[in-house]
Inverse folding.
């Protein structure tokens, strides 16, 4: 099934700092998928389960969170907390009979590293394979 | 506190499948403390209800409300503020709250969002354990403050049984044998002799076996 997905990325301020330089132009030049809307948060530990669910309610076909490495979080445990909440949403999606892979957590180093783009492409590809969100009413 | 956990979403969605408007009603009492039915959990449930109904091709209007408690008449009366905004209430209170709404609101259909599990406490973040069975005949003064009714798998009054091995219960090696703990604790207070006192056959009539229980305080009634 071919479609243009809408993917919401919540990224911590530190991990995405350089990715947003020059209004994201460099990121686009590196092939970061245009299907991804980036929402920067001071710390991914600030994200609540409701924030992630609301992204799906607002029409996202997929949602992912990028935070600091588990053992190198600027706020000590922020990205570890985020991973727990992502896991909670994944479990809730599966409870509703929806693919848990529609949400993911990545722990990446700070700065504009190739992994930031790679994970974006990975998420884009995964959501294209899964197809449109079953939460979007026809 | 009363500890509870959310029911499976499929079960909750089945309850409200024919509703157009639902009031998800949080309780700011025990279930807030055990992170099962407070305002935050009500918001999560509301979101999951909307998503789940959408997946079934339906829409539901969800209003979120909360009461200080759902186990006192004066708070239940506050439901009037959402009058006309729901076909049914999905309560995230314990079973007491659901019963109270049913008792006091003759025209309100109320569904339980939680399974009420036990009276317990949290010694570790995110983890709750059963500590009390509400049996109505407390013997904690005889058992070093540790309850065999709630914490012994057999609710033995004269434990431990033969299934106690290395301080663990035979039902699960991760479950403490509370009678071993009682023995150790009494010993630490030089009261080991208490272990040799045979407890008489227990009268369970206070534990609900004599029907629903009721407490009346004449000095408080008006």
């Amino acid at each position: 099934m071919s479609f243009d997905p809408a993917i919401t990325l919540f990224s911590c301020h530190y991990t995405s700092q350089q990715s947003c330089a020059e209004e994201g132009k460099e990121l686009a030049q590196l092939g970061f998928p245009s299907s991804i809307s980036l929402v920067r948060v001071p710390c991914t530990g600030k994200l609540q389960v409701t924030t992630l669910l609301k992204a799906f309610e607002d029409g996202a076909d997929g949602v992912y969170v990028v935070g600091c490495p588990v053992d190198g979080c600027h706020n000590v445990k922020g990205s570890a907390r985020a991973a727990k909440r992502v896991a909670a949403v994944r479990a809730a999606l599966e409870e509703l009979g929806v693919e848990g892979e529609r949400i993911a957590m990545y722990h990446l180093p700070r700065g504009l590293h190739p992994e930031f783009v790679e994970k974006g492409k990975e998420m884009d590809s995964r959501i294209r394979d899964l197809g449109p969100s079953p939460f979007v009413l026809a | 506190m009363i500890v509870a956990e959310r029911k499976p979403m499929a079960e909750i969605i089945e309850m409200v499948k024919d509703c157009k408007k639902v009031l998800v009603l949080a309780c700011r009492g025990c279930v807030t403390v055990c992170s099962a039915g407070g305002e935050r959990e009500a918001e999560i449930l509301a979101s999951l209800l909307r998503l789940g109904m959408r997946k079934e091709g339906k829409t539901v209007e969800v209003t979120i409300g909360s009461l200080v408690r759902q186990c006192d008449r004066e708070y239940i009366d506050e439901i009037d503020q959402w009058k006309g905004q729901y076909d049914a209430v999905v309560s995230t209170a314990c079973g007491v709250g659901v019963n109270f709404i049913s008792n006091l609101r003759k025209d309100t259909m109320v569904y339980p969002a939680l399974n009420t599990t036990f009276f317990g406490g949290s010694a570790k973040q995110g983890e709750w354990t059963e500590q009390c069975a509400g049996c109505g005949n407390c013997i904690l003064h005889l058992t070093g403050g540790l309850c065999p009714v709630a914490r012994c798998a057999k609710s033995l009054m004269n434990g431990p049984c033969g299934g106690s091995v290395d301080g663990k219960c035979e039902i699960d090696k991760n479950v403490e044998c509370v009678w071993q703990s009682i023995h150790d604790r009494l010993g630490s207070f030089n009261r080991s002799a208490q272990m040799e006192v045979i407890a008489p056959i227990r009268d369970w009539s206070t534990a609900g076996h004599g029907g629903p229980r009721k407490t009346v305080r004449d000095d408080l009634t008006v």
Notes: Chain B has seven helices and nine strands. Chain B touches chain A at residues 8-10, 40, 43-44, 47-48, 50-52, 54-55, 57, 59 (CB under 8 Å). Residues 133-207 of chain B form one domain. Residues 71 and 100 of chain B are 6 Å apart (CA to CA).
